[in-house]
Every structure is written in C-alpha cells, then in structure tokens.
Amino acid sequence: MSTIQPLPDETPAAASGVPEVPADVLAELRSTWTPRPAPGSAGRAARHRLAEATRRLVEAVKLVDPEGDADALKSVADDVSDLAARISAMASLNDREPTLDDLQLHERSPFVGAANPLAPPMELVADGPVIRAHAVFGAAYEGPTGRVHGGYVCAAFDEVMGVAQSGAGALGMTAYLTVRLKRGTPLFERIDYEAEVTRVEGRKAWVEARSYADGVLVADAEGLFIRARAV
C-alpha cells in the first residue's frame, strides 16, 4: 500500500477561495504541458528521437571513467564535436517564426519537453484539481553524491506547481517558491510529485506540493503565482 498522503485539506474550498474550475477549462489551461501528443510530423518525431539519444549521450559522458582509455575518449570527443557541428549547420528554429507546436511546454520544457535533451523527462498527469508527476533523475542531475542537486529539486517543483496553478482557473508567473528539503532526493529512483492550489485571492494563487521517493517524503514546497493584469 502506498504511504503517499494527499495534500492537506484543512480549509474547505469555498472558505479558502479556491474556485470550482470546469474540467474543460482545466484541460485547456494544462494543454501546453499535458497530455503530450504524438509528434505531428516526421521531422518532429526525428527530433524527439534525437533528444532521447542526446539524453543517453549526456548520461554516458557523465559516467565515463576519465582514467580509462584516453585515446578512445579523444576519438569519441572528436566524433561528438563533428556531430554537433553537423546539427548546428541544419535549419534552426531561430531562423523562422515559431509555430504553436514549437511553443508548447510538452515540446520545449527542460523538465517535460520531448524535444529538450535536458528534460529527464518528467511525466505529468492531471487528477482533477491535483497534478501528479514522476521522474527519474540520472547522473547528469547529481549534486551531493548519489543525490539530486538542490537547484534541480527546486526547479522540478516550479514545473509541477506551474501546472497545478491551473486549479485557480488561470495561469500566472511564479512570484516566490519556498522548498523544504526533508532529506536527499535520490538519483536513479522514481520521484513522485503531487501539487494543488490551496488558496486564491484575486490574481494570486497559492500552491502546495510534495515529492516522494518510494513513498517517503523527501521535500515539500509552497509558492505564490500571480497572473498578469488585464490590459
């Protein structure tokens, strides 16, 4: 049985000002993150494959033994340098106006982006007003030995909570984010997240979140998101 506990619900939604947001509105607000659609073209599918291959490359480079075969390392470094030059010579997104597909966070985010080789990638799922997510952080995200760097821990919360703010019925920007590290977040293990809006006042939405490793709480967070003023 899972030991993950739901986020606290000490105040009824009406008293805390959290609105009842229709499911279709929530789906529209979250669509830039989730669900991740199938690639709409052969080129986009190939870029997703390239991003995944690059993730494996980064992981392998991080873990390769520098005291091993130096000549082999030099040869591989030359090959990777040549490959980077080939890719750089190809058509760039910077050379044209981005499309709506280009702008979606499920495409470009450093945490959930299928085309972003920096993304673990994280998987997001909507569960009513709650956003749940999970990710496995490899060696590239290491801070303390065997643990995820604290900066990545905080950034992962910002991503999950940024989606969860949709529970306020609108989206805004992060005003502040407080993360409490209860214990080290382990590498190479599935980390589960949950986040939801706990209070709304005008343009302000407060979000709380937690992360778990094998059902054990490793960190929690609270943040304030503020949507832009109407022009």
TrEMBL record:
<keyword id="KW-0378">Hydrolase</keyword>
<dbReference type="GO" id="GO:0016787">
    <property type="term" value="F:hydrolase activity"/>
</dbReference>
<keyword id="KW-0963">Cytoplasm</keyword>
<keyword id="KW-0443">Lipid metabolism</keyword>
<keyword id="KW-0276">Fatty acid metabolism</keyword>
<protein>
    <submittedName>
        <fullName>PaaI family thioesterase</fullName>
        <ecNumber>3.1.2.-</ecNumber>
    </submittedName>
</protein>
<dbReference type="InterPro" id="IPR052365">
    <property type="entry name" value="THEM4/THEM5_acyl-CoA_thioest"/>
</dbReference>
<dbReference type="InterPro" id="IPR029069">
    <property type="entry name" value="HotDog_dom_sf"/>
</dbReference>
